[in-house]
Amino acid sequence: MQNPVAKVAVVGSGISGSVCAATLARNGISVTLFDSARGPGGRMSQRREISEDGRELLFDHGAPYFTVTNPDVLSVVTEWESRGLVAEWKSNFGSFDCFTNKFVNTEHQERESKKYVGVPGMNSICKALCHEPGVDSKFNMGIGKFEWLEHENLWSLIGLDGQHLGHFKGVVASDKNIALPRFTAITGQPPPLDLSLAPELVKLHDIPIYPCFALMLAFNEPLSLVPAKGLSFANSKVLSRAQCESSKPGRSSTSERWVLHSTTEYAKDVIAQSGLEKPSKETLSKVGNEMLQEFLSTGLSIPQPFFMKAHRWGSAFPAASIAKEEKCVWSEKKKLAICGDFCLSPNVEGAILSGLAAASKLKGLISTLYYNL
């Protein structure tokens, strides 16, 4: 029987943190995962809404799908597929030019890279990984401070409410905001992680990000004049892409559901006016109406939706990669890893690779991580 190995804290249950936590647990390391949200997923989350007439509506309002090119990631995804956690989204995709009001480059799935989705939602992958044996997941629990205990060679984690959450031999963080001034702008509290704790953390300083708004729509009738289930928009100042949620495998088709994503420029303009704080209902309503009007202006006879709700992703996409070679930021002395799509590439595949890299760093120290608590 393998000896129990010291606890590691993983902060963040998005795809990067979830992959890291599950990989560590499979290698005999006891993991406690913390997330301030109600459930796992991060930008892989699935949103559950109830319409006025009581219908349940589910939306992948973050990452709509992902593709795979790296053989290590393909191996992981193939295993997920065998467990029924992911499936290929076989549909046709295209681009709509808002200047000419015409579809261009509409192609069938077999001509493109495979597009994978979680089943029955994008967050299904993270849900499964967060409940692997050896992973103790704690939600609705934000971290207020990462404290390094020099003489004990341990990390002490303190909750946002001041509660002591435990001592840990190693820490993995998958939220870039925990060490940035952006955390203070959003929460009013100082960043939980002090960049001066390790020289390697200087890479985290002021990572540029792209914001985005998502608009969730539900229709009583199919959008029959839209020839593709996934769209990118050209020459639009408001919309960047749209996808039909109800066309994905494992989804309910009792209503037609779409998610629209804004352009970065549009989101920046809104945030410049409203600030980084949680957007008000009025702001989200205004954004929703403007995005819907842009969608309706395509001239495709799109009906009025019976449900509409906007969501802001304040730090949706990293605008730079800070650890392309290492795939994660790593302090061996402190046994601290920072992982996420901002380390390698701004997509799901990049986040998976970064999570695997962070787990590998701590696995390499397995002989020094036996329990002594």
Structural summary, described in words:
- It comes from Gossypium hirsutum (Upland cotton).
- This is Renalase.
- It holds the Pfam family NAD_binding_8.
- This protein is α/β, with parallel strands linked by helices and 373 residues long.
- The protein folds into 2 domains: 1-45 and 122-206 and 320-372, FAD/NAD(P)-binding domain; 54-61 and 89-119 and 208-319, Polyamine Oxidase, Chain A, domain 2.
- The protein is built from 7 helices and 20 strands.
- The chain has helices at 15-26, 71-82, 124-130, 181-187, 264-274, 281-296, 348-363; strands at 5-11, 29-34, 47-50, 56-59, 86-88, 92-97, 102-108, 116-118, 135-138, 143-149, 154-159, 164-168, 170-173, 209-219, 230-234, 239-244, 256-262, 307-318, 329-331, 336-338.
- The strands form 5 sheets. The chain has a 7-stranded mixed sheet, with helices on one face. It has a 6-stranded mixed sheet with strand order 9-2-1-13-20-19, covered by helices on one side.
- A hairpin with a 4-residue loop joins strand 6 (92-97) and strand 7.
- The two termini are 20 Å apart.
